[in-house]
Amino acid sequence: MGKSAPLQLATHGLSGKDLAVLRSLLALYSDRVRCELYSQSDSSRADLHLIDVDDPLGRARWEALREQSKCIVLSRDAVETPLLLHKPLRGPALLAVLSQSALDCAQPSLETTQSMRVPLASHGRLLIDLLEAKVIDRPVCIVTPDPDDSLWIEPELGQYLVSAFLAHLRDFLRTPLSSGLMQPVSREQFRQQAQRVRPQTLMRLRWSSALACSDGRLFAGIDRAMPFRLTAWPDMEGHTPSFFRVAGLLLKRAVNFDEIVDLTGVDEATAANFVNACHRCGLIAQEIMPRRSVTSGFAFGGRDLVARLRQRLGL
Amino acid sequence: MSNAPLKLLFAGPTGAGKTTAIAAISDFPPVSTDVAATDEVSAMKEATTVAMDYGEITLAQGQKVFLYGTPGQARFDFMWKILATNSLGLIILLDNSSQDPLADLETYVDHFRELIDRAAGVVGVTRAERGPLLGAYFALLQRKGCLMPVLEVDARKKQDVLCLLDAFLSVLEHAELPDERQAS
Question: ipTM, 2 decimals?
């Protein structure tokens, strides 16, 4: 890409601060994507328009240009458009959008190759929604906030690749995706990447994405008075003792939400996040059989014994 | 509350890390009956456990928890049932780089199913960077209707062993425990 003509990028409605950030990011990524900046008044030669639609003038400009020109929308909101950048302007997202645009400008035929297009339905939606709805139906590579890392998904194999701990990608997983961040890749490219990064099953990504999107309140769809249990231990990454407490209880007993909080001592928001994530992954089953008392189930002081074991082990 | 000793079982094939895991938490270096391997195990490691490993942890008020590591070779499986009697539960360690770790898991789950269902069990997958993905273990357990945590561990790291034990204890906490008076 470095040898092709520079991308002509016009900006509209950007604040002075965003323009300064943009210039510094373009300088930073100059070895990966070449770009020349134009101001709004001199935008006729532009290949691409970067427009802040939160600014009224920028919004008007976008309305005028969107039909005949290629526009990248910059906004703090979710906007229905193929190329969206969320504020604040971040390097990896900008790089992904510009790289894709440069590729489109150089090889317009790619744009019409249906087999290599990311489904438009993916735009502006959370990753967990895409995974649940199986919208991602071909291998893709998604830019993450770390310029040296990216998230690869292969739906047919049910696998994903990423170097980072998913817990470190929490903000990314809870942010609606822009289609500009998502690039289609071939199965061969995925296979090659899997030589470098250990694959994991999609269920782990789905669980972590669901967890990242939970806001500490039990989903309205879950009846907090109804007992439920886990149908399997979730594929959690790392060691989160409070999640282990809730999972251990729900593997052994059917309890309602208030009983989870009472019996584990885990705070309500943490318990809700865990239950919500399991619910979205289909790991929660409502109990319809009569259940035993949850307060007298410890045959011979089991909780005391476990407490002493934990104390001895420093857990 | 009885002060009778309790026991905790570590099971898994040869080379999965049982002795190392017991060493990570025992009050003293485990008493192992390692000998030079002369059978097919010799291709995997120089010494192996022919009877069992033994360690202890002492709780507040002096109560002991005996830690038993079962011998890895299948020909000693007659001992598994004896060791499992009145155990607090089972920690299965599996070497993911071995020939068929999922078949190994199935073997241990089938042998110890009653203990896992009644008390608690946990699966620790060692050398997880090679071999099947963790998801394959979850799928197998789900197919068998067996509810157990599965975690990747490096048995040489005490923190990993403690994480595995924390998952185990989280399940055990809500299980029907054996009568401590008979547990020894």
Answer: 0.86
